[in-house]
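Let's practice the habit of predicting before peeking. Look at the sequence and jot down your guess about where helices and strands might fall. Then scroll down.
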Amino acid sequence: MEPLGTTLFTLLVAWAVITAALICMLIYRGTLESHEEDQIFLDKAGDSMAQEQRLIVARIERLGMPIKLLITASILLLLIIAGLWLWQGFKNF
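Done guessing? Here is the structure:
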């Protein structure tokens, strides 16, 4: 059987990778949101600007589900790590 310390280390590394990916996605979404305009008054000549804004909004909406999944995975891994750490502490007490 694998020592519990190795398991905790592996889970910590997995949590760090997932949390880093989450932070990168949040930063990317923030940069996309900074390029999004609240209101645009366009005429026929500005159709390309309107299309750009639609693409930005579509990208932001597509990021919603992966961000939620990464948040959930990060929280679950953190709870599992805390539970194993406490269990190991009580076992050695």
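How did you do? Helices lie at 4-35, 47-92.
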